[in-house]
């Protein structure tokens, strides 16, 4: 119980008593703990903070999570077959995002775009070749099934092999009045009309070096190229380094006459070592694409409106032309007819791909201004790997107007881009820079000049790890001041991957510091670790399960998908400061309440006539 030490004094005839000290019983302290009112006001402050700041805090944290996610996505580990000291990375200007994709070509997959050059000719001079027909074979790759047995095994002309047409025999007619330029044009046209993915073009230069590549001849010269998009890469379908060169080899052989000998073709040399560090200015980009025809949409369950019988669609693509035949029978629905057209087109030529695709059409149930769309099907007919200038054209026969193939046709176009002042054209839109060591795939056109840089990989990785560290710290700084607004452990979603591997992360230069446990990054330590054991560093950062960056990205993806606002504490858990506690709902809660009431009554079992309060103030007992 309570103990008091009192003193008496008389003032102006009034007897006063003062209490020198007061001690409360333990049971009373439990009923009214010292933090009672503090807790009441804390809850009020938290509720007020929640109502005023929770939405804005959630938006800020969401922004920081997305920023960290984007920074993590920009981190790339070089994997090009060179040591880290010679590895390179490509850095795009931010405005190039979604317009191009770029990469460094792995050492084992390196192939030049320009494979052969002819010697230089004085274009306006008459040719020294005798009039007549000249024949030569142009081959690309070898039959995979015989590559390990005999690389010189013969293949019939135009044979379709796993790697495409291996050989074309080309014919060029030479007349006595042709100039050298006209001879080169005739060879160029023959190559470009072939079925192989080989392009030929005439390049003119007045001095060696005026062309951006390594053409040695002056005057008019032929360049023979293979788009790097068609290169068979190591590891694809079991292709090993022993077969890589053979499967990508371009060769020419005279079979009648000596036209190839007259041109004196020489192969370009592959560059040695990694890509060169440097800047490329890209501008005036026009994204290309193949020709495509799409029919109108049809209800697949509805009967076709085409007449029964045989039908045909004429086609032309490059120098190839032919006819697509299909039939319609009584009672056929549109699903059957569209499938027949697609199968017939795909089987007619390897330059054509066709398929039935999903589409939408207006429901016939509604008329006038009221309508809605229902699921349907269309047939799509597309050119396959067209060469520069190659376009697919279709001429449906009579009675096929209902298909509407020409209504939504896309004529197709070549990709074009100006690189450091030189305009290049490609089909498809993959551009090989630095003699094939850097690849840029054009996905969307743009006008103004935008930079692309090739940089040292180690330096770039150091910079990116620093940026990722800053992104982590920015996120933590956004969460911690408002941590009481989030569910317990929210901030630890990102911190746990750090603490789980604390020792190893310190070894690569990442260390927690300060009261807020922010990350400090030591670039010198990172550089030393990278050079001493790069595989371990990569595992610590990018391991599929335990890598720091992998775990952070997994958390980011989950939080972004769920939205940060879903991690806020429920607003219902913040009652007003003056509201009564929730009423008892269980037998246990009722028992606890009874015990508190009994304790309260026992603790206040004292004489109310004693003139003293529990603060020790002087109390008048007059009267």
Keywords:
623 residues, alpha+beta, four-stranded antiparallel β-sheet, 13 helices, 28% strand, flat, disordered N terminus, disordered C terminus
Gyration radius, rounded: 40 Å
Low-confidence stretches: 1-7, 16-32, 143-165, 582-586, 615-623
Q: What is the subunit organization of this protein?
A: single chain
- Order of strands, main sheet, comes to 3-25-14-21-22
Number of strands: 28
Summed up, the helix count is 13
Give the overall shape, derived from the CA principal axes.
flat
Q: How is the main sheet built?
A: 5 strands, antiparallel
- Helix/strand-derived category reads alpha+beta
Range of strand content: 25-35%
Instruction: Compute the separation of the termini in Å.
Output: 28 Å
pLDDT averaged residue by residue: 83
Brief digest:
With 623 residues, this protein is an alpha+beta fold. The strands form 9 sheets. The chain has a 5-stranded antiparallel β-sheet with strand order 3-25-14-21-22. The longest helix has 39 residues, at 36-74.
Structure description:
The chain is an alpha+beta fold. The chain is 28% helix and 28% strand. The protein is built from 13 helices and 28 strands. It has a 5-stranded antiparallel sheet. Strands 10-11-5-13 form a 4-stranded antiparallel sheet, covered by helices on one side. A 3-stranded antiparallel sheet has the order 1-2-28, with no helix packed on it. The radius of gyration is 40 Å and the shape is flat. Residues 1-7, 16-32, 143-165, 582-586 and 615-623 have low confidence and may be disordered.
